[in-house]
Write a structure and sequence with these properties.
Layout (H helix, E strand, L loop, with lengths): L1 E6 L4 E8 L3 E9 L9 H23 L8 E7 L3 H18 L3 E5 H13 L5 E5 L4 E7 L2 E7 L5 H11 L6 H9 L12 E2 L2 E2 L2 H12 L4 H27 L3 E5 L6 H13 L3 E3 L3 H4 L3 H13 L28
Parallel strand pairs: 1-4, 4-5, 6-11, 11-12
Antiparallel strand pairs: 1-2, 2-3, 6-7, 7-8, 9-10
Bound molecules: adenosine-5'-triphosphate and fe (ii) ion (FE2).
Length: 328
């Protein structure tokens, strides 16, 4: 079984071709990088429109697969930026009609989770999904992924991006902050905002900007923000493990590329005698392979959608999606 997946929820246009056991046969991606400031949805969508034809060709040719061998076309139906989602949905509908193959809708957040879970080989872990727009601690139960805790304001990646741009840097901020943090030496006091199972970042954003205006270096700020924010995520993940009596953590989403976050979560898990896993970085950030893999799981479980009903869902939450491919 071979499935093609289309990702276009935000900054990245990507096409993946995936077979059984999440074997990634082909993956072609291109990220929109705004010349300055944050992402403008329409400009990102224009980027995707231009890039998709070549990305589909590249993914198929690197997979050495012809369109005839593709058995279903999956696409990220939501959540995300409306104009960006619509470009990917249009490409997916076109391919589905052209090749006469079923169209399979996929939730982008569930896709981050499923690709991380299959690569981990762990059946039922707690999941820490940390990305641009989302920050959630998740466990599966009663047919869906349940959000045990999450950000009360912005996603951690959006917070890092916004902070870095306001310090004079460029999008994406997360990897740049990771590099700058390696040069930081002083741990500056920042708000540590954990509310039960939830977290918040806007106080830390304001406090960092105030410290910078008073002369704090970008390196010390980057270091302090990483230590504080990733400690908050590690704390709520540990609480989820304890309450849910789970023995493993799997990380997913773009911020799961971060070495400090990976190390902190691993140290916490190991101190409890548990394990932790994070996928290779190319599969943590937005990519078409995670959409294709989740589409394969969903399609095998009977999920498909008529073109006429395949409108995008910019606000579709993780816990609104049934997971008929999972037991329990
Ligand atoms: P969502 O899944 O919520 O829709 P997204 O689709 O915008 O988010 P992802 O590709 O999953 O995006 O994640 C992108 C985010 O990951 C960006 O905010 C980026 O700064 C952050 N990021 C990428 N690499 C790193 C890193 N090494 N350290 C910290 N953050 C990182
Ligand atoms: Fe994402």
């Amino acid at each position: 079984m071979v499935v093609l997946g289309i990702e276009s929820t935000a900054h990245t246009a990507s096409v993946g071709v995936v077979a059984e056991n999440a074997e990634v046969l082909g993956l072609a991606s291109d990220m929109y990088r705004p010349p300055a400031g944050g992402i403008h949805p329409r400009e990102a969508a224009n980027h995707h429109v231009e890039l998709f034809p070549a990305l589909v060709e590249r993914a198929l040719s690197s997979a050495k697969v012809s369109p005839r061998e593709i058995e279903a076309v999956a696409f990220a139906q939501g959540p995300g930026l409306g104009p960006c989602l619509r470009t990917g949905a249009t490409v997916a509908r076109t391919l589905s009609l052209l090749w006469n193959r079923p169209l399979v809708p996929v939730n982008h957040c569930v896709a981050h989770i499923e690709i991380a879970r299959v690569l981990s080989g762990l059946d039922d872990p707690v999941l820490l999904y940390a990305s641009g727009g989302n920050t959630q601690v998740i466990a599966h139960g009663s047919g869906r992924y349940r959000v045990l805790g999450e950000t009360l304001d912005v996603g951690i990646g959006n917070f890092l991006d916004k902070l870095w741009i306001s310090l004079g840097g460029q999008f994406p901020g997360g990897p740049a902050i990771e590099r700058a943090a390696l040069e930081g030496v002083d741990l500056l006091p920042l708000p540590y905002s954990v509310h039960g199972m939830d977290v918040a970042f806007s106080g830390m954003l304001t406090a960092s900007q105030v410290l910078h205006s008073r002369g704090a270096s970008r390196e010390n700020l980057a270091y302090s923000v990483e230590v504080t924010a990733y400690s908050m995520l590690t704390e709520i993940t540990e609480r989820a493990l304890a309450h849910r009596k789970k023995e493993a953590v799997v990380l997913g989403g773009g911020v799961a590329c971060n070495e400090r976050l990976r190390t902190m979560v691993r140290a916490m898990a190991e101190s409890r005698g548990h394990t932790s896993f994070a996928p290779p970085k190319s599969l943590c950030v937005d990519n078409g392979a995670m959409i294709a893999w989740t589409g394969l799981l969903a399609w095998r479980a009977g999920v498909r959608i008529p073109v006429a009903e395949s409108g995008v869902l910019p606000r579709q939450r993780t816990d609104l999606v049934d997971t008929p491919w999972r037991s329990g």
